[in-house]
């Protein structure tokens, strides 16, 4: 893998490892969870060695996912804080989805769509984690009443669906905005990419305000 | 082997196939528990353990004749005792055999995510097929009567099978056979309902005006029914639900949400696909790179709105 | 076998697909056909008619044992239930009768004769010959020493009061008769059964 | 039982008092439920506790333990006062009209003839006035003040409803309601059955409890009829058989009594047995006594029993005391008068009163032999098990043998059920390990002893050497051979003088009527004659056909005597021989003979007009409202307080408890008083367990795992006892520490104006087996018995109860 000379580091190695652990666990949770959600998808439990294994593994994936997500929060909470520009960007959502980037206002490191993904997950994952604990039959089956568990399982599945929808959007956006995937696999973007998608961030970098990811000033 | 063919099932958990309906003439069975004849001797419990090779732990005395203290993976039926003082101040000892009710519309089966782990035979028996059980505990949440229990040893769910092995060879369940006073009867559901009517008449003649049959409509009727002296107050009998029904939460979860969610996820994916083929990928151009390079070389200053 | 990356993906993909198909029900009729009820366990068991050993309702019972009484099969009792032909219990059994299997196979069933010496702190396994020889000797010693042949009035009374016996009220009448013969021929009068307790 | 289990279904009223049929005999109790459902019967339960039987009763009344006679005497008073008796029946079939001797009297709690030094009665005045021919005088008009019915009226007059309630604690309205229900069965076509068990027998007045009820049943005409009778629900599976075969200290097979040492010769022995009829023309079946005894001796000693040696009469042991019962045996053990004890399938350390005394007694033995399929407490009495069995093995010099035996599933043989049915059972498997049958073990001991006597001689070896032992395998006689021995056979060709039919030598006999007193027949147990005939093993019959579904099933197994299912069934028909209840006839006179669904308990061709009474075993042919000299306490039942009682006997404080109870000095000193032990305790079984056996069975240990006592809510509150909390129950003899079951089912009773609390003590737990360890109810119980039978008073004694904490594991 060769890194272009003027590449801008968008995600550090730690960012990327954390993200992909996250992503892996999410996929495992998604597959094992869906296998227990809809009979049509029960075949997915085969990926885990059958229903018993899927059922046993799912909550443990969840525990690690929660831990992993805490890592994500620590690393990304600051860059996902809302900013005034988010309003303008959100107003231009039609232009965003139609690739009419000329008419999209410039934004910083993350646009509000990305922020929405982050905060949605930050809300949903703990909900999934806590409701998941309540219905973790092996350890907490007798900890709460069946009535509580019924509500928990309902919330758990609603939250999971929401999370999946957010995830679909996230994955599609990564594919749609070309070279985003590379930023999360190899960690860098080209200056042009930063210029095009996150111009404010680009200028911050160019003016040396963000030290770690500062590209070389002069080629 | 006494394999029942798949055609003997009328319901099968988490299955996407339509159950076969060709064999539509099988008689439905029912167990009738006449509480007014029950002496609480626990022969049913004993026979159940013996026939089904179940031996729970030896417990302690906990202030009641109830032992073990609860249904469990190895306790499929349990006598529950309630000391009740009636309006006349006379004591009644209301003793009820607890266990699976074999609902016509089984909440456990509805909630179960494992294909074929819970089945309902054409004769009405709701059976757990351990081989297919994944131990998720959803049946526990689905059951309106708090019956299934998950084993900590093998993580499978257990409950009364109505001795499906005995019934399949033409015998009555073990508890029915043992019951010394005939408080547990077994036969076709229609015969049991008729017999219950006679019993209720007798009870009414002995001063139990509210005697009646417990065959709750809310779960489509049950294949285990009770004759109660106080059918107006089932909860007197150690908390038998007055109006049992599958929880609306479970109904929602296993009803509308399931297809909506799958549809929603599929829609999101399809929307993405069509976005791709209509709008297409958002790619940067050479110009972007050049502009960026110029900016980096300091040949360009940001516009005011481009500053953070 | 060297696999290129592309081939590897293909293989795992196929494997996944195959296993998923299996789970969907294409993996053979055994899986597709929904599982079976538990096989009926008495189909070829040997049935023996007996009477419940507990109370004197004397319920008829059917004892089922493994094996067809062929020479090489040591029959083992696997199940006991009520005899539906019996006019009193008509197949029913109480919680004790329903659990007769567990008394037959109780872990505290005795299997060897045991002996405890005077002042001893434990039982020792002994042979039947040792036990019966010793018992007979002790009984004879006591009888010879304390037997009352005649009373003060000179009447022959043939009475042995220093050794007594309690007879088993769950043993058969045939056992009882033999026991009576033995006890009375020895002149034993301290002789009772469980009729009262 | 006079009737069968299934016959209970014919009853109109079922009384369960002195027992807990649902709990102790669930499968027999089904016929009570059937009576309710199919016959509209009312179930009445009278019990100190609201039992499982009470849970399905139509009417329940509480009663203070040990006061049943007061209750039942009150019922008799009610029936006589309201004239709710079945006149025709009482007049013809009971001794109501017979005239009692002058001199018979009852004053201040005592009948005539009491000797306060010996605590016994001279019973000579307890009899009828006889005429010149030796027949009892009678007054059929019941005018004579000394006729039985008038004496009875006078005797029970004191038991007014107020007095009954004052003694028993039963509320008056409940008592009177029950009287009404009883009275409804005085109608000729109505029947009441009485189901009882140890709740009546285990009292110092046990036999009189039962007598009182039997008198009520006679007054109501309920004896001998379908759905009636006195039904003792017996305990163990063959306790009836062991009683029938005479395994009691004073018994021989078939209810023949063992001689006592005043009966110095066979003729003297027989002179007290051959009951002459007391009324003209009566059967008095015991006139055949001699035939039964001679046939027994021929069975036991074969050719060695001869006319010349008085049928080996001298070889029978002779008693010097009325009974060598268990209470006496342990008294003797404690006094150092016993050296050896054999417990065959019996667990006295758990079963007998005053456990401490039992343990001390066993410790003084030279040897103890236990024969049992299970590891019993008794066989380990010498071992230390902490507070449940504190023993010091080093100090106990007893040699102990623990012999493993087969159980029911591993042997052939017959058992006699409560309804006197002899049922054969078959072996299903081999015994575990080296376990052997009781027959093999008893034979083994016997052969060794016989060999020793043959070789060495010794004390009086004659009976040992001469016992007949003609079995194919002398080491382990076949049960069928023993059954044939009991049935009996002809020893020479015998010809029936009436029919001219000859029975060949060696042939099995069909009926005890064939027995002879000249040594030409042998029968080990005359009442079993007919059970194993040339037609085969009658006990193995399995035809369950039940004519009219009336609960007889005459071809199922075989019932003694003579396959008769309902005793005294002649009394089911009126004087003309027609059934009192035409819907449920048992036997009827068809003009030439008695026919019906049962074997007549009567001469089959004796005409009704002959005036032969239906109670053919009794010398007067009648049911006895007046018991003559047959009971220790008196011819009528009288209320005496239990030995330990919270109150004084309000009828006659000077004669508080049973005046003729036998109490050993050390046992008397172990009685507690109401000041230290203010609560009445009663012991009982629970349905989940059978005595001390099923704690060895895992399922039953699961169903009722741990020792507890039952305490009413009021007392529990007073004492601060919590549900399921630990309590200490103590009597003068010991203490039990266990859990408490605080229940609404036991309520305080108002006795003589004061509340009396009852504590229930189930008896199943010990220190071997699978259930949790327990102290055993007999730690608390007093060592005193019924004056007639010495059945221990387990059902009413005094205790104290206190809240405590869990015992510290030893």
TrEMBL record, chain A:
<dbReference type="InterPro" id="IPR011577">
    <property type="entry name" value="Cyt_b561_bac/Ni-Hgenase"/>
</dbReference>
<comment type="similarity">
    <text>Belongs to the formate dehydrogenase gamma subunit family.</text>
</comment>
<keyword id="KW-0472">Membrane</keyword>
<keyword id="KW-0812">Transmembrane</keyword>
<keyword id="KW-0408">Iron</keyword>
<keyword id="KW-0349">Heme</keyword>
<feature type="domain" description="Cytochrome b561 bacterial/Ni-hydrogenase">
    <location>
        <begin position="10"/>
        <end position="187"/>
    </location>
</feature>
<keyword id="KW-0249">Electron transport</keyword>
<keyword id="KW-0813">Transport</keyword>
<dbReference type="Pfam" id="PF01292">
    <property type="entry name" value="Ni_hydr_CYTB"/>
</dbReference>
<keyword id="KW-1003">Cell membrane</keyword>
<dbReference type="InterPro" id="IPR016174">
    <property type="entry name" value="Di-haem_cyt_TM"/>
</dbReference>
<dbReference type="InterPro" id="IPR051817">
    <property type="entry name" value="FDH_cytochrome_b556_subunit"/>
</dbReference>
<dbReference type="InterPro" id="IPR006471">
    <property type="entry name" value="Formate_DH_gsu"/>
</dbReference>
<feature type="transmembrane region" description="Helical">
    <location>
        <begin position="57"/>
        <end position="77"/>
    </location>
</feature>
TrEMBL record, chain B:
<feature type="region of interest" description="Disordered">
    <location>
        <begin position="1"/>
        <end position="23"/>
    </location>
</feature>
<keyword id="KW-0812">Transmembrane</keyword>
<dbReference type="Pfam" id="PF09163">
    <property type="entry name" value="Form-deh_trans"/>
</dbReference>
<dbReference type="InterPro" id="IPR017900">
    <property type="entry name" value="4Fe4S_Fe_S_CS"/>
</dbReference>
<feature type="compositionally biased region" description="Basic and acidic residues">
    <location>
        <begin position="292"/>
        <end position="308"/>
    </location>
</feature>
<keyword id="KW-1003">Cell membrane</keyword>
<feature type="region of interest" description="Disordered">
    <location>
        <begin position="284"/>
        <end position="308"/>
    </location>
</feature>
<dbReference type="Pfam" id="PF13247">
    <property type="entry name" value="Fer4_11"/>
</dbReference>
<keyword id="KW-0479">Metal-binding</keyword>
<comment type="function">
    <text>The beta chain is an electron transfer unit containing 4 cysteine clusters involved in the formation of iron-sulfur centers.</text>
</comment>
<keyword id="KW-0411">Iron-sulfur</keyword>
<dbReference type="InterPro" id="IPR017896">
    <property type="entry name" value="4Fe4S_Fe-S-bd"/>
</dbReference>
<dbReference type="InterPro" id="IPR014603">
    <property type="entry name" value="Formate_DH_Fe-S_su"/>
</dbReference>
<dbReference type="InterPro" id="IPR051555">
    <property type="entry name" value="FDH_Electron_Transfer_Unit"/>
</dbReference>
<keyword id="KW-0408">Iron</keyword>
Automatic annotation (TrEMBL), chain C:
<keyword id="KW-0500">Molybdenum</keyword>
<keyword id="KW-0560">Oxidoreductase</keyword>
<feature type="signal peptide">
    <location>
        <begin position="1"/>
        <end position="34"/>
    </location>
</feature>
<dbReference type="Pfam" id="PF00384">
    <property type="entry name" value="Molybdopterin"/>
</dbReference>
<dbReference type="Pfam" id="PF04879">
    <property type="entry name" value="Molybdop_Fe4S4"/>
</dbReference>
<dbReference type="InterPro" id="IPR006311">
    <property type="entry name" value="TAT_signal"/>
</dbReference>
<dbReference type="InterPro" id="IPR027467">
    <property type="entry name" value="MopterinOxRdtase_cofactor_BS"/>
</dbReference>
<protein>
    <submittedName>
        <fullName>Formate dehydrogenase major subunit</fullName>
        <ecNumber>1.17.1.9</ecNumber>
    </submittedName>
</protein>
<comment type="similarity">
    <text>Belongs to the prokaryotic molybdopterin-containing oxidoreductase family.</text>
</comment>
<keyword id="KW-0411">Iron-sulfur</keyword>
<dbReference type="InterPro" id="IPR006963">
    <property type="entry name" value="Mopterin_OxRdtase_4Fe-4S_dom"/>
</dbReference>
<dbReference type="InterPro" id="IPR006656">
    <property type="entry name" value="Mopterin_OxRdtase"/>
</dbReference>
<dbReference type="GO" id="GO:0008863">
    <property type="term" value="F:formate dehydrogenase (NAD+) activity"/>
</dbReference>
<keyword id="KW-0408">Iron</keyword>
<keyword id="KW-0004">4Fe-4S</keyword>
């Amino acid at each position: 893998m060769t890194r272009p000379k003027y590449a801008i580091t968008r995600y550090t190695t730690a960012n990327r490892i954390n993200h992909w652990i996250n992503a892996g666990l999410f996929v495992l949770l998604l597959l094992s969870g869906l296998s227990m959600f809809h009979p049509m998808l029960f075949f997915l439990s085969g990926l885990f060695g059958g229903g018993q294994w899927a059922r046993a593994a799912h909550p443990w994936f969840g525990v690690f996912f929660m831990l992993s997500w805490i890592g994500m929060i620590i690393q990304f909470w600051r860059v996902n804080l809302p900013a005034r520009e988010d309003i303008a960007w959100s107003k231009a959502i039609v232009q965003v989805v139609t690739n009419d980037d000329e008419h999209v206002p410039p934004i910083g490191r993350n646009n509000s769509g990305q922020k929405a993904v982050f905060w949605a997950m930050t809300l949903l994952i703990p909900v999934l984690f806590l409701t998941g604990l309540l219905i973790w039959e092996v350890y907490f089956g007798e900890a709460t009443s069946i009535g509580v568990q019924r509500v928990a399982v309902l919330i758990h599945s609603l939250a999971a669906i929401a999370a999946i929808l957010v995830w679909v959007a996230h994955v599609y956006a990564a594919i749609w905005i070309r070279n985003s995937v590379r930023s999360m696999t190899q960690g860098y973007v080209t200056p042009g990419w930063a210029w095009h998608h996150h111009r404010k961030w680009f200028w911050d970098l160019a003016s040396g305000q963000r030290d770690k990811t500062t590209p070389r000033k002069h080629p | 082997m006494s394999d029942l063919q798949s055609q003997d099932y009328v319901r099968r958990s988490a299955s996407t196939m339509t159950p076969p309906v060709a064999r539509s003439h099988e008689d439905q069975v029912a167990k009738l528990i006449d509480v007014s004849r029950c002496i609480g001797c626990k022969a049913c419990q004993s026979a159940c353990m013996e026939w089904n090779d179940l031996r729970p732990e030896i417990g302690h005395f906990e202030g009641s004749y109830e032992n073990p203290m609860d249904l469990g993976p190895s306790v499929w039926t349990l006598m529950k005792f309630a000391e009740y003082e009636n309006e006349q101040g006379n004591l009644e000892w209301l003793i009820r055999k607890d266990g699976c009710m074999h609902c016509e519309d089984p909440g456990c089966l509805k909630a179960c995510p494992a294909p074929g782990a819970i089945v309902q035979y054409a004769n009405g028996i709701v059976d757990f097929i351990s081989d297919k059980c994944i131990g998720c505990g959803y049946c526990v949440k689905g059951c309106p009567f708090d019956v299934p229990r998950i084993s900590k040893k093998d993580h499978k769910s257990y409950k009364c099978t109505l001795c499906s092995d005995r019934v399949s060879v033409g015998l009555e369940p073990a508890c029915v056979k043992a019951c010394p006073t005939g408080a547990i009867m077994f036969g076709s559901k229609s015969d049991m309902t008729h017999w219950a009517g006679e019993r209720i008449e007798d009870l009414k003649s002995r001063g139990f005006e509210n005697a009646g049959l417990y065959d709750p409509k809310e779960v489509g009727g049950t294949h285990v029914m009770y004759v109660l002296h106080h059918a107006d107050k089932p909860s007197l009998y150690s908390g038998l639900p007055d109006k049992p029904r599958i929880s609306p939460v479970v109904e929602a979860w296993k009803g509308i949400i399931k297809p909506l969610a799958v549809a929603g996820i599929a829609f999101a994916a399809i929307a993405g696909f069509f976005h791709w083929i209509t709008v297409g990928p958002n790619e940067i151009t050479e110009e972007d790179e050049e502009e960026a390079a110029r900016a980096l070389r300091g040949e360009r200053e940001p516009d005011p709105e481009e500053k953070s | 076998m060297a696999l290129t990356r592309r081939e590897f993906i293909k293989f795992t993909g196929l494997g996944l697909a195959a296993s998923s198909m299996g789970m969907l029900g294409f993996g053979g009729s055994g899986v597709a056909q929904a599982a079976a009820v538990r096989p009926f366990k008495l189909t070829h068991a040997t049935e023996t008619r007996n009477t419940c050993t507990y109370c004197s309702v004397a319920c008829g019972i059917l004892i089922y044992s493994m094996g067809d009484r062929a020479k090489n099969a040591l029959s083992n009792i696997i199940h006991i239930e009520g005899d539906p032909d019996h006019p009193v219990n008509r197949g029913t059994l109480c919680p004790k009768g329903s659990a007769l299997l567990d008394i037959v196979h109780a872990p505290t069933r005795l299997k060897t004769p045991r002996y405890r010496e005077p002042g001893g702190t434990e039982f020792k396994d002994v042979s039947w010959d040792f036990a019966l020889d010793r018992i007979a000797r002790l009984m004879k010693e006591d009888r010879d020493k304390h037997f009352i042949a005649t009373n003060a009035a000179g009447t022959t009374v043939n009475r042995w009061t220093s050794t007594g016996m309690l007879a088993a009220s769950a043993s058969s009448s045939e056992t009882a008769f033999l026991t009576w013969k033995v006890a009375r021929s020895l002149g034993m009068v301290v002789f009772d059964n469980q009729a009262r307790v | 039982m006079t009737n069968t289990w299934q016959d209970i279904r014919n009853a109109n009223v079922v009384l369960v008092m002195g027992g807990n049929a649902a709990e102790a005999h669930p499968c027999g109790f089904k016929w009570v439920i059937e009576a309710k459902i199919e016959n509209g019967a009312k179930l009445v339960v009278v019990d100190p506790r609201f039992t499982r039987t009470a849970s399905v009763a139509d009417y329940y009344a509480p009663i203070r333990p040990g006061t049943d006679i007061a209750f039942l005497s009150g019922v008799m008073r009610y029936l006589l006062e309201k004239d709710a008796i079945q006149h025709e029946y009482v007049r013809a079939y009971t001794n109501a009209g017979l005239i009692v001797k002058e001199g018979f009297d009852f004053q201040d709690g005592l009948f005539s003839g009491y000797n306060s030094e010996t605590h016994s009665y001279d019973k000579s005045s307890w009899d009828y006035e006889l005429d010149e021919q030796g027949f009892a005088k009678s007054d059929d008009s019941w005018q004579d003040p000394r006729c039985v019915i008038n004496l009875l009226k006078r005797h029970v007059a004191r038991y007014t409803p107020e007095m009954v309630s004052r003694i028993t604690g039963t509320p008056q309205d409940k008592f009177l309601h029950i009287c009404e229900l009883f009275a409804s069965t005085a109608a000729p076509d109505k029947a009441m059955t009485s189901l009882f068990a140890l709740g009546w027998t285990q009292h110092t007045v046990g036999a009189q409890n039962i007598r009182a009820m039997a008198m009520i049943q006679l007054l109501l005409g309920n004896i001998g009829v379908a759905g009636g009778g006195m039904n003792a629900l017996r305990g163990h599976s063959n306790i009836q058989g062991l009683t029938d075969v005479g395994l009691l200290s004073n018994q021989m097979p078939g209810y023949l009594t063992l001689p006592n040492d005043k009966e110095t010769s066979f003729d003297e022995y027989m002179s007290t047995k051959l009951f002459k009829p007391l009324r003209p023309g009566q059967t008095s079946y015991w006139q055949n006594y001699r035939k039964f005894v001679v046939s027994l001796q021929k069975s036991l000693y074969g050719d060695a029993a001869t006319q010349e040696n008085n049928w080996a009469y001298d070889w029978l042991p002779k008693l010097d005391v009325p009974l060598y019962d268990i209470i006496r045996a342990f008294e003797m053990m404690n006094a150092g008068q016993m050296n050896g004890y054999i417990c065959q399938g019996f667990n006295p350390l758990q079963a007998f009163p005053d456990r401490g005394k039992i343990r001390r007694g066993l410790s003084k033995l030279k040897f103890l032999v236990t024969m049992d399929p299970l590891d019993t407490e008794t066989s380990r009495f010498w071992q230390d098990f902490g507070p449940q069995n504190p023993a010091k093995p080093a100090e106990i010099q007893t040699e102990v043998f623990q012999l493993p035996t087969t159980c029911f599933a591993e042997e052939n043989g017959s058992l006699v059920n409560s309804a006197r049915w002899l049922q054969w059972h078959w072996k299903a498997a081999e015994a575990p390990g080296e376990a052997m049958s009781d027959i093999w073990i008893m034979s083994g001991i016997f052969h060794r002893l016989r060999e020793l006597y043959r070789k060495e001689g010794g004390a009086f070896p004659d009976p040992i050497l001469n016992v007949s032992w003609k079995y194919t395998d002398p080491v382990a006689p076949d049960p069928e051979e023993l059954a044939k021995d009991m049935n009996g056979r002809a020893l020479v060709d015998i010809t029936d003088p009436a029919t001219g039919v000859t029975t060949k030598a060696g042939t099995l006999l069909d009926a005890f009527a064939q027995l002879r007193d000249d040594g030409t027949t042998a029968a080990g147990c005359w009442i079993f004659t007919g059970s194993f005939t040339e037609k085969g093993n009658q006990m193995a019959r399995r035809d369950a056909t039940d004519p009219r579904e009336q609960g007889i099933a005459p071809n199922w197994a075989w019932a003694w005597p003579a396959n008769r299912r309902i005793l005294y069934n002649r009394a089911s028909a009126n004087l003309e021989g027609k059934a009192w209840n035409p819907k449920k006839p048992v036997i009827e006179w068809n003009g030439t003979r008695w026919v019906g669904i049962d074997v007549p308990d009567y001469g089959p061709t004796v005409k009704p007009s002959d005036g032969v009474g239906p109670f053919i075993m009794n010398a007067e042919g009648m049911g006895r409202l007046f018991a003559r000299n047959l009971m220790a306490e008196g011819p009528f039942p009288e209320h005496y307080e239990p030995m330990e009682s919270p109150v004084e006997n309000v009828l006659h404080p000077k004669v508080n408890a049973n005046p003729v109870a036998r109490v050993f000095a050390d046992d008397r000193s172990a009685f507690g008083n109401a000041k230290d032990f203010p609560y009445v305790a009663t012991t009982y079984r629970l349905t989940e367990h059978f005595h001390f056996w099923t704690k060895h069975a895992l399922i039953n240990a699961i169903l009722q795992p741990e020792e507890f006592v039952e305490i009413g809510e009021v007392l529990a509150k007073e004492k601060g006892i919590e549900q399921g909390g630990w309590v200490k129950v103590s009597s003068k003899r010991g203490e039990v520490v266990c859990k408490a079951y605080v229940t609404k089912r036991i309520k305080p009773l108002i006795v003589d104006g004061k509340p009396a609390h009852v504590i229930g003590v189930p008896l199943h737990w010990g220190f071997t087996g699978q259930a949790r360890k327990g102290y055993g109810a007999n730690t608390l119980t007093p060592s005193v018995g019924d004056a007639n039978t010495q059945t221990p008073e387990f059902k009413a004694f005094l205790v104290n109860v206190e809240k405590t904490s869990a015992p510290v594991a030893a």
